[in-house]
Amino acid sequence: NYTGTYEQGGMDRHDNWIFKTASMDVVGEFDIEGVGHQLLLGANWLGQSYDRLQYDITTEDTTIGQETDLNRTDDISKDTYSESDSYGVYIQDMITINERWQVLAGLRYDLKITRGQDGESDEHMDAVVPKLAVIYHPAENASIYATYTESFEPQADVASEFAINDGAELDPVTGKLLELGTKWELFDNQLLVSGAIFEITEENSIINVDIDSTMHEVTQAGERVHRGAEIALQGNITNEFSLSASATYLDAKYTVDDNYQGNRPADVPEYAASVWSRYQVTHATDINLGAIYVGERYGDAANTFKKDAYTRLDLGVSHHLQYDQDLEMVFRFNIENVLDTDYYAGGGSTSDDYDSNGAQNVVVGEERNFMATVQIRY
Question: pTM for the complete prediction?
């Protein structure tokens, strides 16, 4: 048992996020000199605001096993407001050259405008990202494809009381994807099989570098690469019973990084898999049973400690009630982690006192929990 006295304090923090979205897509199909085109034009918008008000709580000496009164001060330690608008416009064309060959080409333009405490425009981030794919159909029920695409992900400002650069602006995270894959429809389209190998390169990755036992610095240290393979199966075993399964192998590492060169990113397992089944008891009632496997993975970017692999079972029941031709009700009851398996989820950090105090901020996986929902469609 622990004994002794230590200092205890804290904060009273209120965060208010507001998100608004809108999107529009227009699709048209036409032929030009015997070549088919499926043209997609689209746009989307995301508006968000963040308001943070924080008060300090007095620090008091606390004796283990005894209650301690902590009081909030009247001093506001943090009062910030920011808002942003993210706009995207894109164009994509699926070109059918003949029954064997297709080409997909697209461009997307992203713009993010961030406004600070004064409400004035103070930051603009934009990028043009391409997408290109070539698809070959060796048979009517099969396709082989190769694709290249880029990504642009603006980042919010640092918002952590325990970061020495709290409030700092972050650069966008950018990425590139190369993928070679295939898809097959078998047994009269009763079974869909797909597989792929891929490489994802991400630059400006966000890493928390520990300064001491309580503080860290949010950095964008460099580059990391994920190379892997995945396979997926989905089909009907019988008219009432369907099954879907997937498995992934992933080799991930920091390839350019002052602190973690060659290390594996946190919470990225080498192996992961899932199986989900659906059995139609009656025309209106389904039972679902699924299993999720997550392999062992490091808990921090320094690769100081590992989290054990785990398998979690989930169960669900749904019932559709057609009240009349205009009104349908769907009742769902789900049990997550049926066997109440103990496991560690995301999160984790270490510091100089790791040998004596171990890892900190590791999220414990949800214990068995239940959820019931009712959906009304009219």
Answer: 0.78
